[in-house]
Amino acid sequence: PTVIDWATSAQLYGAAPGASHDDVVTIQARECGSSFYRTVVELHPSAGGGWSMPAGSAITATYRATWNGRTSSAVTIRQRAGVGLERSRFGRGFVVAVSGKRSFWRKQVLIQRRQSGRWRNVRRAVPVRSGVVASRWRNVRRAVLADSVGSTGTVSVSQATFRLAVPKGTLLRASLPEEQARPCYVASTSKAVRT
After folding, report:
1. Which of 59, 75, 163, 178 is the most buried (most CB within 10 A)?
2. Collapsing DSSP states into helix, strand and coil, what is residue 36?
3. pTM (2 d.p.)
4. Closest of 10, 115, 97, 24 to residue 55, by C-alpha
5. CA–CA distance, 17 with 15 (Å, rounded to integer)
6. How far apart are CA 1 and CA 176, in angstroms?
7. How far apart are the first and last CA of the chain?
8. Is 7 left (phi over 0), alpha (psi -120 to 50) or beta?
9. Phi and psi at residue 115, in whole multiples of 5°?
10. SS3 134
């Protein structure tokens, strides 16, 4: 796949015709927001020059391979952000959190509910792809990620706390729209939570 979920990886593969197991193929990556490639790994190809490796940098990145002074064509793997929704430990509120290598501070997340077995829009249609009908989703509110609650030095987590009155048994999820995810991420959705 050229689009991967948070905390997952894609499989890169290729071939260096004429290379042997003693040769070294260098895999380089250019992450979103960077103007240069950096070396990710150096590997030894199999007999015949073939090679493969898992790739995932927690942000949209473009990869290429170099060997013997030659450079492959580039492949871009687009990344979904990590979106989570859960009940607050205190009261009847909810907490939505978005993780990524770039801060999502002040970005807006749509809170959606499922009704009558289908997801529908309340305020406006949310653009979707792959032939999914946009009218299946209902947006019940927006949550603004007002603060960054943590960082490992590599991954930043931004979150918002909100209250929402819905009937018991309602399924909710959080959706980070494409326009809020750009340029380094694509639209992302949390797992559903039942109230």
Report:
1. 59
2. coil
3. 0.81
4. 10
5. 6
6. 20
7. 33
8. left
9. -140, 140
10. helix
